[in-house]
Amino acid sequence: MLQVKVLGSGCPNCKRLEAETRAALDAAHIAYELEKVTDFDQIAAFGVLSTPGLVMNGKVVSSGKIPARSRITEWAKEIEAVTE
Known about the structure:
This protein is of the alpha+beta class. About 45% of the residues lie in helices and about 25% in strands. The protein is globular and about 30 Å long. It starts with a strand and ends with a helix. The relative contact order is 0.25.
């Protein structure tokens, strides 16, 4: 199961990234567990200076933007292939 974290304060862009990530992974039938991380110390621990940030299985795949759903799906499939 893919472990996903959305990093951010809860701003509109953070909420949109969460929605886009859920939509992308649901459409691709990828099993995932999503956690929202709003604590700035935890966000900084990932090295993310610009939110929203997206982390999959501990790897930061995006920060400071909202990637396209297709790109979110690509990252998820790449990470799943490596961890299998």
